[in-house]
Amino acid sequence: MSIFDKLLNKRTITSPIFLKEFEDNNKQLQDLNDLLEKVSSDKKNLINRDIFFIKQELYGEKNVYNELKNSFIPMLAIHDIRLEFNDYVAQYDFILITAKSIFVLKTKQLNGDIEITEDGDFIRIIKNKEGKFLRKQGMYNPISANEREVHILEEILNREKLLNSITVKPIVVISNPKAIINKSKCPENIKSNLYKYDQISTLIKKILDDSKYAKELSEKTMHEIANYLINNNKEENIDYRSRYSLDKVETKNEDLDKVSNLQINNVEKHVDLNEKEIELSEDNNDFKQNEKSSNNEHSEVYELLRQYRWNKSKEEGFKPYMVFNNEELNALIEAKPKSKEELLKIKGFGPKKVEKYGDAILGILNSR
């Protein structure tokens, strides 16, 4: 290689560069706290619970962010990206773009003792305050969800001709320093994709050092990938009136529109109610009850749809809101479509989603 070529290919990315930074006090918390001031009913409990969940998730993500920021790894980093591809939606906590590989990090604020079986099942060990064993409880598998989201990212980047044979590596990061994870019996694909946050820098450096791929991304392509992801970030707006079943009686401010227009970007990422039902213990009974539809006439169908959503998410290995989110669930209850043609008219239900879930949804809606 000539001196000119060496100068032309000189690397200027020598440390982590965050092109979309982590935000400690983001708009999500600001909007929920703002809403909390306007609600006078028992819905305050639901909002406070959501605020707690978001703070827990942000605390964990901050641990990961600090570790990455101080890693000295030459990379472009992006925090909190939501992409839409055909009828699919994928949420990414961190995407790290290096010359040799792209890393997709899903952070999990797991609590307590977690055991992973030979079959890859995640089991939470429930103990009392004295540390005495009470029972075991199955929980959501974050590995499968992250692998699915990596597949979507690969499809997107290949379509845009940006991947250039570079591998995309999924990693689930346990962001709670107190969590105890027993991986001694788990399958190798889980063991190699699940790490505590304080191990992540060492892991990435090792993967890059051991990389057998001679081909590297140019810095120009690295920036093109990062810019594409940021420019195509689809922020999701949630209608609080639907989410909390708010009405004028329940608010101090008579202008309900002001409440319903307080929307938050990407709440589903931090507050997936079905997943939290698994992750928390007995103290969730009131929360689950309050999440039910306030309309008694529809409550049974509402719960059947929620149960179907949860079962499908476990079966397919991703979060329940990716089947359909709470706003779409409420739209189903309100519209009660009789056919796939009517189902296609509901926002969020494209041809692929209707083809995949339509028969089951219509069966539930029209069974009562």
Give an account of the 3D structure.
46% of the residues lie in helices and 17% in strands. With 368 residues, it is α/β, with parallel strands linked by helices. It has two domains: 3-231, no CATH class; 292-365, HRDC domain (DNA polymerase, domain 1, Orthogonal Bundle), CATH 1.10.150.80. A six-stranded mixed sheet has the order 1-2-3-4-8-10. It has a four-stranded mixed sheet with strand order 7-6-5-9, with no helix packed on it. β2 (75-85) and β3 form a beta hairpin. α2 (27-38) packs antiparallel against α3 and α13 (296-316) crosses α16 (351-365). Residues 19-49 form a coiled coil. Residues 56-176 form the NERD domain. One of its GO terms (molecular function) is nucleic acid binding.
The major β-sheet equals:
6 strands, mixed
> How does the overall form come out from the CA principal axes?
globular
Structural class by sheet pairing and helices: alpha/beta
How are the strands ordered across the major sheet? 1-2-3-4-8-10
Give the beta-strand count. Answer: 10
Average pLDDT figure: 79
The helix/strand order is HEHHEEEEEEHEEHEHHHHHHHHHHH
Properties at a glance:
disordered N terminus; DNA polymerase, domain 1; alpha/beta; 6-stranded mixed sheet; 4-stranded mixed sheet; 368 residues
Q: What's the quick description here?
A:
Residues 56-176 form the NERD domain. By secondary structure, this protein is α/β, with parallel strands linked by helices.
Architecture blueprint of SSEs:
Layout lengths: L2 H6 L7 E5 L6 H12 L4 H27 L5 E11 L2 E10 L3 E8 L4 E4 L5 E6 L5 E6 L3 H18 L7 E8 L5 E3 L5 H4 L2 E3 L3 H11 L8 H13 L8 H5 L11 H5 L6 H4 L2 H7 L5 H7 L4 H21 L9 H10 L4 H4 L7 H15 L3
Parallel strand pairs: 1-2, 4-8, 5-9, 8-10
Antiparallel strand pairs: 2-3, 3-4, 5-6, 6-7
Helix pairs in contact: 2-3, 13-16
